[in-house]
Amino acid sequence: MRVFRMIGTIAAVLGIFVGLQWYIGWNGSVFLSALTDSYSGALYWTCFWIIALSYIISRLLERVIPGPLPRGLKWIGSYWFAVFEYSVILLPLADLAVWAQRSASVSRDTAVLSAGAVYFVILIAILARGSWNAWNPVVRQYSVVVNKQAGDLKQLRIAAASDLHLGTIVGTRYLKVLVERINQLKPDIVLLPGDVIDDDVEPFRRLDLGSVMKGFKSCYGTYAVLGNHEYIGGKKEEFIALMDKAGIPVLTDQTLKIADSFYLVGRKDKAAQSVRTGRSGRLPIKELIAELDHSLPLILLDHQPSSIGEAADSGIDVSLHGHTHRGQMAPNHLLTRRIFELDWGYLHKGRLHAIVSSGYGTWGPPIRIGSRSEILDITISFEPLA
What we know:
This is Metallophosphoesterase. By secondary structure, this protein is an alpha/beta fold.
């Protein structure tokens, strides 16, 4: 029964997806027929479905003929995600505007063309602003106080960037911007809380992005953990080896004592849990830190902010997360806000200071509406209680 329910759910989702795509295509067809008499329906619908399904086509092609063609289709398909989402929001309003004009005895072509022109202006404005938000990162500053002794350290300055999503869309140039911006902060340590790559490790290897990441400069080095996208790609071991070659340890349920002053705790991503068996492929936080000296500060890297309560109950002092992108494109943030206790920003829970980043890179389209690409600049002051 469970299998049939799953098949039914997948079929329903696919049906809705295809139906919405057709709705967008139909609106485009109506607009073109009002615009010109030489409109070719067959050519239009062929081009439309290639564009609408280009991301899926690219993922299939890259397994057979990797190269410029699937990469180009992935670019098109990534931007189409944004066009798709905002068209689903805008086109019903445009159709209502056409209906209102037709009710006022405006000709069909005039109503369609005027509503379509407004739709295109708004859509282009959204994409332009969203692109600017995605490619112009901001530095978010946080200052927290941990009431513990940290060796001889009075303060620790952390530069962090989650969700780089390095791959076909986010590549060498934008990674160099990250390295430059982080080095300007002169951090004590650089932390990467997951989703360093965007599914496939091939672009990371082909573009030798590890060599770029060697450019991070800090007193105590650069450390990363896995995100769900490293698991989705299926080659996390190769990714870990490439990161190690770049001098960046990837902590997989591991802990490190840094400068005899604090502990860095790197947790496996929640994706390590088997969907089929329900068994967890990662350690509970309490078990992970059981042998540590809890009189020293404990800093946790855990990609998904799904265990903030567990971190607080386990005695973690500072936890860093990503994953949510703050929805990346509004109004998606309304969904992430409901899913996670904290989907972006800062939360003080007990003695835990939890910080969730909206991420540096993007998944799908390099478009951000209602969110910004960001780098975290975190200053931890160590002030033991008297």
